[in-house]
Amino acid sequence: PLVTSKKMFEKAYEGGYAIGAFNVNNMEIIQGITEAAKEVNAPLILQVSAGARKYAKHTYLMKLIEAALIETDLPICVHLDHGDSFELCKACIDGGFTSVMIDGSHLPFEENIALTKKVVDYAHERGVVVEGELGRLAGIEDAVNVSEEEAFFTDPDQAAEFVERTGVDSLAVAIGTSHGAYKFKGEPKLRFDILEEIQKRLPGFPIVLHGASSVIPEFVEKINKYGGQMPGAKGVPEDMLRKAASMAVCKINIDSDLRLAMTATIREHFAKDPSNFDPRKYLGPAREAIKELVKHKLVNVLGCAGKA
Ligand code: G3H
Ligand code: 13P
Ligand code: ZN
Ligand code: NA
């Protein structure tokens, strides 16, 4: 059934694991992810960004996810990723999403609170849950000095006040991850000390980790081998994700790894079978690669297999 993430997060917090939140924008991606979850009996969050919703259209995505619900019989939450306005959140709530993110992380604290609270009030009246964000994810490496870098991370005191005053159901935090395939120039480092402080201030409250792709070297190598150019791509080591999942982090966002699996598979196909022009012959293997990747994440990294 279509569900919110409320019970998923309660069980995940309790059990010391995390739910995988995977970005979707077409049929093969939805099938690959949901077939993997079905095989290992994992609860799922499928998330749609503003860009994905514009690309595939709201109704197509909802209907594809409805098909996946029928095929898998799993608890699946449909979530808006990085909602940037009340209007977008409202459209998704009215259109059947069970969860929305309002990302006011770029706004001054008081404005972030006001916008988030407005979305929470609308969502909660309709049985929909809300994820807020505090702290700046992107551009850690753009910081010119240590104190500026520190200011990008989530402030634990502010996190507690933010949750209290907005009534959000979960909170995305900045502890050193970033979006995309180039997360670290040097050694990967996450601020688990900050996560611990947040956890202390907000006992039992579910935390969300964005930018959590591990940028699996096998896929990057394949992309580079078959004509791609992704030198220096680097993600979050899976051991760090396991550690986060064992703590207050209950939702781990993965998009880039799906893109890499799909692109690597299709590049290999085109290089090895240049005469083929049947899309099923490369979208099929791409779907299979996504399925294997997601199974690996659910079973070996997030710890949510068998928890549906
Ligand atoms: O947070 C970013 C997600 O990977 C979605 O990316 O806006 O290109 O769909 P997108
Ligand atoms: P990645 O780019 O690391 O996959 O992060 C995805 C994400 O946070 C979506 O909100
Ligand atoms: Zn994100
Ligand atoms: Na956890």
TrEMBL record:
Pfam assignment, any one: F_bP_aldolase
CDD domains: TBP_aldolase_IIB
Keywords: Glycolysis, Lyase, Metal-binding, Zinc
Binding-site residues, Zn(2+) 2: D103, E133
GO biological process: fructose 1,6-bisphosphate metabolic process; glycolytic process
Residue positions of the active site: D81
Residues in the signal sequence: none
Pathway: Carbohydrate degradation; glycolysis; D-glyceraldehyde 3-phosphate and glycerone phosphate from D-glucose: step 4/4
Enzyme nomenclature, EC number: 4.1.2.13
Catalysed reaction, written as an equation: beta-D-fructose 1,6-bisphosphate = D-glyceraldehyde 3-phosphate + dihydroxyacetone phosphate
Family: Belongs to the class II fructose-bisphosphate aldolase family.
Role played: Catalyzes the aldol condensation of dihydroxyacetone phosphate (DHAP or glycerone-phosphate) with glyceraldehyde 3-phosphate (G3P) to form fructose 1,6-bisphosphate (FBP) in gluconeogenesis and the reverse reaction in glycolysis.
Protein name listed in UniProt: Fructose-bisphosphate aldolase
Organism of origin: Caldicoprobacter faecalis
Lineage: Bacteria, Bacillati, Bacillota, Clostridia, Caldicoprobacterales
